[in-house]
User: Which sequence fits this backbone?
């Protein structure tokens, strides 16, 4: 390899001729075929490598699978024993793999030689790098944990708020049920003491079952129609001498009870038992209503818990085929209790979008970050739009808001770690960085933004088919 060819690499462009000659005397050029490992994670870190030509990809094997960074053919990109200058304070094995994705040539420098050169040529830079590496790593870990805890707190607050309403409704309904069941038993005992015939009681039980079954299944009526029906039934009950007629009328009307039903009760059970029979029927109808409320409340709780389970993906394999629409819905459900009343959520899902291979839980983290940012940007009012589509190769997910937009001056920086436009204490600058790394690094997709005031869109593109590692 000639000195001028080495100088063309951006990493070495400012070095002197003597320095380039020293590199050439200590390093070597190696060639690799497509699919060859240039360095392999876990093996002894023996060399620092710089791409001369070809295409490479950095891969890291984690507990949940292989994380692959985008492929690159940029001459001068480097990998391998990049922290050899730290000596024993650096990992003694490669912390990642570097794979040739096309026939490639690289310049390889032994790790010990690389460490000596950095120490001798750039002593001040070495100390700065050490501080940035260890300090930055600690800072990143702290802020990353804080980011996750903040997101968890937001989601937990919303879920708690949503669970509280149906839970409170169920508790209230159960309390009323106790009172109603006690009253129903008393009414039934009063009928028995009054000497009602068994066959009349059987008829009354059958009527009670029909009334209870009718609750919630009748054709809808306007408030005026319901009010008129209650007035008519209340007057009729009063005329035949039924006590508390106006208290019984609403429950009976709700079960479809009308003048014909009243006449049927009078005929079947007799005048002397009509008042007690109607009270028992009204209690039975209200018990059925309360049971419906308990059922609705518990179903709502079950739905919320199912959404939370879907959001967390806690019972799923880390990597599998997932329905993006289900993931988006579960994330929106987590935010429901935190949305200001004047923010409208609009979804426009492509029904033909197929399932995609992905880490479901990590994609939910992306949706959480993007939706949270959109809500923050809009403040108290606006429209949050979530839509999906696809082309031949990619699923497309877009999350838009009607906030003030992202200024052109910072569009190129919003995905940088620690960069934030939020005030102190309200943002860590890691949300979009984490989202980008999940989309691009974990899934081989794209995350980009387009924005004008009042119309901002974050577009996520994900492969429809699994990309071989």
Assistant:
């Amino acid at each position: 390899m000639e000195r001028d060819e080495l100088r063309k690499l951006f990493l070495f462009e400012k070095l002197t001729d003597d320095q380039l000659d020293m590199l050439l005397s200590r390093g070597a050029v190696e060639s690799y075929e497509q699919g060859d490992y240039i360095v392999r994670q876990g093996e002894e870190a023996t060399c620092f490598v710089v791409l001369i030509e070809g295409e490479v990809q950095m891969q890291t094997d984690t507990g949940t699978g292989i994380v692959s960074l985008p492929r690159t053919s940029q001459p001068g990109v480097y990998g391998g024993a990049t922290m050899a200058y730290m000596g024993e304070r650096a990992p003694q094995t490669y912390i990642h793999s570097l794979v040739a994705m096309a026939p490639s040539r690289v310049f390889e420098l032994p790790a010990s030689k690389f460490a000596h050169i950095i120490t001798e040529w750039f002593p001040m830079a070495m100390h700065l790098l050490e501080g940035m590496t260890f300090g930055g790593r600690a800072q990143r870990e702290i802020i990353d944990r804080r980011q996750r805890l903040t997101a968890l707190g937001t989601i937990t607050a919303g879920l708690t708020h949503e669970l509280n309403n149906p839970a409170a409704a169920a508790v209230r309904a159960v309390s009323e049920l106790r009172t109603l069941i006690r009253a129903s038993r008393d009414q039934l005992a009063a009928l028995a003491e009054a000497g009602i015939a068994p066959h009349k009681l059987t008829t009354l039980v059958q009527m009670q079952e029909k009334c209870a079954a009718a609750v919630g299944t009748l054709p809808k009526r306007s408030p005026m129609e319901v009010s008129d029906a209650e007035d008519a039934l209340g007057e009729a009950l009063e005329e035949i001498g039924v006590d508390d007629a106006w208290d019984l009328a609403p429950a009976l009307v709700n079960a479809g009870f009308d003048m014909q039903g009243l006449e049927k009760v009078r005929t079947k059970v007799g005048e002397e038992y009509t008042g007690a029979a109607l009270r028992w029927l009204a209690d039975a109808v209200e018990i059925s209503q309360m049971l419906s409320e308990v059922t609705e409340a518990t179903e709502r709780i079950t739905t919320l818990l199912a959404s939370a389970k879907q959001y967390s993906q806690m019972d799923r394999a880390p990597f599998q085929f997932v329905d993006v629409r289900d993931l988006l819905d579960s994330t929106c459900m987590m935010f429901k209790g935190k949305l200001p009343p004047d923010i409208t959520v609009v979804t426009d899902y492509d029904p033909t979008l197929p399932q995609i291979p992905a880490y479901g839980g990590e994609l939910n983290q992306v949706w959480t970050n993007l939706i949270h940012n959109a809500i923050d940007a809009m403040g108290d009012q606006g429209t949050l739009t979530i839509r999906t589509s696809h082309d031949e190769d990619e699923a497309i997910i877009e999350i838009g808001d009607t906030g003030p937009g992202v200024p052109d001056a910072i569009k190129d920086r919003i995905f940088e770690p620690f960069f934030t436009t939020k005030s102190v204490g309200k943002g860590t600058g890691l949300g979009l960085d984490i989202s980008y790394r999940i989309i691009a690094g974990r899934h081989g997709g794209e995350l980009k933004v387009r924005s004008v005031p009042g119309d901002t869109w974050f577009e996520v593109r994900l492969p429809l088919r699994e990309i071989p590692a």
Residues 423-429 have pLDDT under 50 and may be disordered. Residues 224 and 230 are 10 Å apart (CA to CA).
